[in-house]
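Chain A, query sequence.
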Amino acid sequence: MITLQFHPDWPYQAGTVIDSMVADGTYRSQFSTGTSNGGLTAHPGGDRWHWESRLFAGRYDDAPATSRPVYGAWNRRADPYGGAVRFGSSYVRLRPELLDRATFCFPDSVYEPSDFGDQRALSALCALADASELGDLDDAVEAHIHGPVRFTTDVEAVVLDPSFADTPTATAANQLGCPVEYHPGFQVHANAIDPTYRGPHIVTLAKSLGPTDHPSPNRPSSPNHRHPHPTPKTPLALPSPLRPHPTRGQIECATSPQIAHTSLVNKGF
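Chain A, predicted structure.
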């Protein structure tokens, strides 16, 4: 399944990300929103623009921002937390039929991968990801969905962290026009965080969030906020430091940007 990770309560314009989703009725790309959980380079001449030009054979070079693909991950392990947890505490789970207008790559497009294609390449891309030993935060098979993603027709469910239950975030999610679900929940033991992984300041930040060492995604200033949901995934397993990505160019089927581009054109996208 394809999942799109996001932080529903992050501020956006006069409200939050989830408020914007309700207002738009669609899941939009960084080119359209100007926001991201990664680098902010989605503008003409920026890194993201160049990566997409290469991956998609220039098909979006002169296209309006609203027509750009949105990014997610192929959830190859059926992880209840989504396919790319580093990019959001919550996620959108897409309907299976959107596979017909999706492309995939490994590793992340920031590395300008050569292994790229449509759904025919998934088994090989997943094998590369499984062999990469990149860790839970970095081994996602990246997905690109071409064409609009509408909550009422293209989304199977929006899956929130349980810390958002009975909050304005959940109230907004229930207005999206698709089912709302909850995953088991994220927690982290501050004392269990390896200070050499992201730096000792991360440990200091985790400990500063309140009297408990189990902060959750919702309202870090009030980490004691709790809801009756399944036992959370605790502690959050942090991967080892980023290792070199696997050898590129190992896939024989549907890896050419032009092949994938032609496939999408033939399907009407």
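Residues 122-132 form the longest helix (11 residues). The longest strand covers residues 155-160.
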